[in-house]
Amino acid sequence: MAKAHQRTVAWVGFAIVAFAANSLCCRLALGGEKIDVGTFTLVRLGAGAIVLVAINLARRPRPAGLFACNALSSLALFVYAAAFSLAYRQLTAGTGALLLFGAVQATMLGGALSRGERPRRGEWLGLAIALGGLAYLVSPGLGAPPATGSALMVLAGAAWGIYSLRGRRLGDPLVSTAANFLWALPLALMFWISVHGAIPAAPAGVMWAVLSGALASGVGYAVWYTALPTITATRAATVQLTVPIVAAFGGVGFLGETISARLLLASLLVLGGVGLAIFTRRLTK
């Protein structure tokens, strides 16, 4: 039992670091203008597709439906990946991760409301605090992140939230994720054709795109889906609160970014609000 618990902790820890690493890889590639957004998006999705398909083909018994097309989920995945890349040309790692995380949670709560779920008062309060933190982060004034980059990251978060909501209705999440990565590639190719060429793709930029797709996305999702059956939904949601924090400190350590007072306060409000909503639901069950 102890070994199983240690293995779960290791899986979850790796997944959280991998998710935060997506922000760092994107900033390292696009912030330094080592690659254009179209090439980064195409390489990232392609590398992720290769790893996820290979993992599924290696499973025994081999899962069915690996190449099934889900058009809406693939479109949502592409919109997330493209908007994510465009946004990180302007945002720091921590700010981008916080905006992404907040938009994902708000979208998923909206989906829950549309299905007839009614939040408790503590959940409404938590949501209000979290949205207030995001509003404060992007409000005009000294230290506010660029409006265009912020809007693009919110779009990326909304798209990922829709993708996650749709994924709940599917069977094997690892199979569906691999298939969606594959079917998002034609859209990424069209995106690449429309925007590539503005910045020559340097080897370092391609490397960061491959790492983002293969390791941070492909392997990260595989490990996360392996760990999910061994933890509760509440714990899964709670540990994801750490992703923006890990990304922010990773940006400080690897990119020389700074954590502003605005970002720090907004992080406390967003993460605290989401945490309140999660634990309110848990305590009242």
What do these coordinates show?
The protein is mainly alpha-helical and 285 residues long. It has one domain. It contains 11 helices and no strands. Helix 1 packs antiparallel against helix 8. The longest helix is centred in the N-terminal third of the chain and has 30 residues. The protein is globular and about 45 Å long. The two termini are 27 Å apart. The mean pLDDT is 85.
List the helices and strands and how they pair.
Blueprint: H1 2-31, H2 37-58, H3 71-87, H4 93-114, H5 121-138, H6 147-167, H7 173-195, H8 203-227, H9 233-239, H10 243-255, H11 261-283
Helix pairs in contact: 1-4, 1-8, 1-10, 2-3, 2-7, 2-8, 3-6, 3-7, 4-5, 4-6, 4-10, 4-11, 5-11, 7-8
Features:
285 residues
- Please bin the fraction of helical residues: over 70%
**Mean pLDDT over the residues:** 85
Radius of gyration over C-alpha positions, nearest whole angstrom: 18 Å
* Strand and helix order: HHHHHHHHHHH
Task: Flag low-confidence runs.
Answer: none
**Strand portion, in percent?**
under 5%
Termini, distance in Å? 27 Å
Count of DSSP H/I helices:
11
Shape field: globular
Give the number of domains. 1
What is the total tally of β strands? 0
Structural category: mainly alpha
Largest sheet, strands/sense/barrel? none
